[in-house]
Amino acid sequence: LVNKAVNASHILPHNTNMKFSTALSALALIATSTPSNAFAPTTSLSLGKAQSHRAQRIGLHMSADSNDMVKVSSTALKSSTLDSATAERSTVDIQQQAEEELLNAFEIEQQKSYLDDGFVFGLEGSGLERPKGKVANVVVEGDNLETQPYQVAMVGGTFLGHAAFASLAISQILQQNGGDVATTAVQTLLVTLSSWVLADLGSGILHWSVDNYGNGRTPIMGNIIAAFQGHHSAPWTITQREFGNNVHKLCIPFGLPTMALISTLAGPENGSVTLFFTVFCALEILSQEFHKWSHMTKKEVPSWVNSLMDIGLTIGRVPHAQHHIAPYDGNYCIVSGLCNKSLDESGFFRRLEHIVYNLNGIESNAWKLDAKLRARTLRGEYRLEN
Question: Residues 62, 69: contact at Cβ < 8 Å?
Answer without folding.
Answer: yes
